[in-house]
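Supplementary Methods, section 5.1.

A reviewer requested that the exact input to the structure prediction be made available. We therefore reproduce it here, unchanged from the version used in the analyses.
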Amino acid sequence: MKLKATLAALALMFTPAIASAMCSWGKMEQTASACAEGQVYDADTMTCIEPVSS
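The structure derived from this sequence is encoded token-by-token as follows.
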């Protein structure tokens, strides 16, 4: 019985660490296809920006 309680306590103790690691693991990178209409993807800053008119 003590073994089961110890294993359950360990599992509950490590659950937040595993959950936080999983959240950052699948983070999607922004690409040109994710830019809003009228914006262009700037590879230097890795963000969508308004195009500059000259």
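Residues 2 and 8 are 10 Å apart (CA to CA). These observations are discussed further in the main text.
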